[in-house]
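Can anyone check this?
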Amino acid sequence: MTTRDEARRGAANPRSDELRLDSGRDVVGRRDATRRDEDRAEHPAAGSAALSLPERLYAARERKGVDLYRAERDTKIRARYLAALERGEYGELPGDVYTKGFLRNYALYLSLDPEEVIGQWRRERGNVAPPKTVLTIPKPIAQPRPGLQFSPGIVIAALLTVLIVAIGVWLGIQVMRFAKPPTLEVTNPREATVQLTQDATSFTLEGTSIPGASISVELAGGTRQATADSTGAWSMTVDVRRGKNEFKIDATDPDTGKHAEEPVMVVLTVPFTPTEAPTLSINQPADGTTFENGAIAVEGTAANATEVSIVATYEGPASGAPAASHGSSTGPSGPPGPAPITVPVADDGTWNTGDSPLQLTTGKWSITVTASNAQGKSASLTRHVAVAYKGVNLVVTIKGGNAWIKVWVDGQLDPTVGRAGRTLHDGQVLTFTGQQSVEVRTGSSGATLFTLNGQSLGALGKRGIPETWLFKPPAPPAPTQHQ
């Protein structure tokens, strides 16, 4: 290879020339150090204290077993400056400030005392002021920072903190759960009031709530229950009648017992043809029933009807009982029947006699119920019942004012009125049942009306006059002096 090619490569790679120069100087430095080692071997009395700073640096690097290039990588100081320090050629260094920084970092790297190394450098340097060159000062080698230490106390405290936070979160969730009522939404129908087709007989209510919620639907004739599934969805199929059908829907959380904030009301209307005849059903009484008490409640349902009338007709004595001996509007040998009762049909199609049941005496009776509408259409049903009183059944009605009463049943004070008696107001009704007798003390005989075993006796005295009456069938009512 020609000298021209080498020069061309050298011009192309000046860094290589520097390294070759530094390497050559390093070789020379090693030879000088070898000669110094030989001299120390010949003159051991000189000892290590006679070493100059460049010799100390070189010897320390040799002990560490690294070359200049490895030291350059570890200290981030260029190899040419490290070689200048080991040769004592301080003029090749940038300046005093940088030289001290190089010495300090190199001393730390070689496990030498940096302050002692800088002090020796100052002593050997004398007062020579090298030219100042502005260069970036290399960062000193940072001492390794100690790792994060965890003592048992810190670990226990951290675990307790995490446990307390977790318990607090859990308690907060439970408080919110128990304080919050269940949600309730009806998705079918979407409107609160819906009109169905004329032929509709059932409808499926659907909605959402919390998972597992108990859904109750209050409708005519009772309440039905459903349970929301794991997604909170629920559904229930209900029967609908002609006219207005109202449903009250509620949700209950089975764990907390809380109800939804507000029940949902749904109204389903099934239209009917105005000219269509009413439909009628009687839920009570059942046909052929025998009653021991003549106060008989009548109830049922009707469609396409506005009102229901109820008429009771005497048919004869009950089995084994003699026929009544007094006349009646229902027949020459029958007791008088109660006046006809007319009750309205509710929006949901139900009707009942409510607080005014039929008061029937002993015997066989037919109860005829007729439903009618504004167009004159009607439908009728009849139920046959029997009344066979046992003992005494006395109905006391206050009419036209207030009256104080005191009652003995089978010779004992009745607990419903008490030992001191009780004042009843106009329109109040009480029923007393005994096996042998019922005795009533009234403060106003004319305002106290009696019905004995289904037979209306009316008032037995005058208004404002206190009297006591003993009812012990088959004997007629008799006044007594019982106070």
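Reply from J.R.: I decoded it. DSSP finds eight helices and 28 strands in the chain.
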